[in-house]
Design a protein that fits this description.
Helix content is 35%, strand content 22%. The chain is of the alpha/beta class. Helix 9 crosses helix 10 and helix 14 packs across helix 15. The protein starts with a helix and ends with a helix.
């Protein structure tokens, strides 16, 4: 197979030079102007008088913040699945069926041809930054494997297809990428995740993979099955010795960092984090791991940021790249080249830099935990669990937490964690883990510390160990195994948490 890395290197040199001189504020203004002009005569554009908008401030006055349910009710439900002309003027041939992590309800997100092109450019930018960090990389000398959903998409109407975004992306590979893509088309169509991984794990051993990516929890599961398929294999170097780059995204890498560090020992591969969503490709890693992700300012998206504490107010402050501050927790809203307008994505981010703009994902709005006024965010919960596991010298496979409300007068509410380790947890580990998480959160969060003081308002958290494989079995029972599906870190719905407890 011809090594295409030299061609990529030529592109990377030009693109990185352009980005080095980019004015992200002007890039964002330009994106917004183009989006408004292009969609001016859609139903949404006419409803909001796009032709009269001249600035970011005008736009924010004309277009309110919306959630998925607002778009579905007001614009998409009636004509679904034919969405052309409602919020975007061009043909909508693909609709991503989003996983519905928190509620389990599927969301249908339009994917335009412009969005598909933007996603491709984001991947090229990610590869360009990889080459900048690893000049000797030969990342396109072998095959590329994106561990995702089935390419056998549903067809709700003639010329319209729905499915997992990763399946849509694989279905729309550019011509030059198709010969390099793994797995073969027949196996890429397999919908059953267990069957798919069982077929792909042994086959990947001879595929000469140089680039691999996917949701980190499912990547870990796949790699472990691939190692099991090769006698004596204990690391990634044993099963994919030519691997140059491991891309991860979708969930926080922190709980898995130690495990991947062990697996990558002896490998030449580096890890690179990306921030894709069904709604758009938002940011990529341009520096070292843990140093923030660079927002893509010129790739079809316009970003707004709302202080999380103001979301429920009548007129929340709406920032853009020109007004954001570092160190503050924002809810992110997207305006996209697939017809989303000031759409609250559900994720929360914090800026670590503004020139250029770099963010860390701090969690999801639905993954905050404040059943008793403790105001914990996903980032704090992830860090506490990760820190406890590191102290105990164990690897976290997955976890979730839910509030337990008082059952009788005089009882105290508390948090209940279910944590699956790579090996079965011992009772004394669970008790120590509870103490470590509790202390870590008290150190990080003043509200939590005040509510826990003296056990007056909240009881100490309880940690329950789950046998290996529990979360995969539970996700499978919900029809949410693999692809872009994720275990919800916070379960606010009692029925969902009860079903997990019953399975354990």
């Amino acid at each position: 197979m011809l090594d295409a890395t030299p061609l990529l290197r030529m592109y990377a040199q030009r693109r990185l030079a352009s980005l080095a001189h980019q004015n992200p504020l002007e890039a964002q203004r330009k994106q917004l102007r183009w989006l408004l002009r292009h969609a001016a005569f859609t139903q949404f554009g006419k409803d909001h008088e796009f032709t009269k908008i001249r600035s970011v401030e005008d736009y924010q006055k004309q277009v309110k913040l919306r959630r998925y349910e607002d778009f579905w009710r007001d614009y998409w439900q009636k004509p679904f699945p034919r969405l052309t002309g409602t919020t975007w003027p061009d043909a909508i041939k693909f609709i991503a069926a989003s996983s519905g992590t928190t509620t389990g309800k599927t969301k249908f997100i339009p994917v335009s041809q412009q969005m598909i092109a933007s996603n491709r450019r984001a991947i090229l930018d990610m590869l360009a930054f990889h080459l900048a960090r690893r000049p000797g990389s030969r990342v396109l000398s072998g095959r590329t494997f994106m561990l995702g959903g089935s390419t056998d998409l549903n067809r709700p109407a003639a010329g319209v297809y729905t499915g997992d975004l990763s399946g849509i992306a694989a279905k729309n590979l550019p011509w030059w990428a198709k010969p390099r893509y793994f797995p073969p088309p027949t196996l890429a169509k397999i919908a059953d995740w267990t069957e798919k991984v069982a077929a792909l794990a042994p086959l990947s051993l001879s595929a000469n993979l140089t680039l691999m990516g996917g949701t980190v929890s499912w990547l870990l599961s796949f790699l472990e099955q691939a190692m099991a398929a090769k006698a004596g294999a204990t690391s990634i170097a044993d099963i994919s010795p030519q691997l140059d780059l491991l891309i991860h995204g979708g969930v926080s890498f922190e709980p898995y960092r130690r495990r991947f560090s062990d697996l990558l020992a002896g490998s030449r591969a580096e890890t690179s984090e990306v921030y894709p969503a069904s709604e758009g490709f938002i940011a990529i890693q341009d520096r070292g791991s843990g140093e923030g992700l660079r927002l893509l300012a010129d790739n079809g998206l316009f970003y707004e940021f709302v202080p999380v504490e103001e979301l429920d107010s009548a007129q929340p402050t709406r920032h853009w790249l020109g007004t954001v501050e570092t160190g503050r927790n924002y809810a992110i809203a997207l305006t996209t080249n697939a017809g989303l307008w000031s759409y609250l994505l559900g994720d929360t981010v914090r800026f670590v830099d503004t020139a250029p703009a770099r963010i860390v994902v701090t969690g999801r709005l639905s993954h905050s935990l404040s059943a008793f006024g403790e105001h914990l965010i996903g980032e704090e919960i992830e860090a506490a669990v990760t820190g406890a596991a590191a102290h105990l010298g164990v690897h976290v496979t997955d976890f979730t937490v839910a509030p337990e409300f008082p059952a009788a007068a005089g009882d105290k509410g508390r948090h209940v964690y279910i944590i699956e380790l790579s090996n079965a947890a011992e009772p004394e580990q669970a008790k120590l883990c509870s103490e470590l998480i509790d202390q870590d959160l008290m150190d990080r969060n003043l509200d939590y510390r005040e509510h826990r003081h003296g056990d007056v308002q909240m009881a100490a958290p309880e940690v329950g160990g789950a046998p290996p494989g529990t979360f995969a079995h539970w996700m499978n029972s919900r029809g949410k195994l693999g692809a872009q599906n994720k275990v919800p870190r916070v379960m606010s719905e009692n029925a969902m948490f009860k079903s997990l407890i019953e399975m354990i």
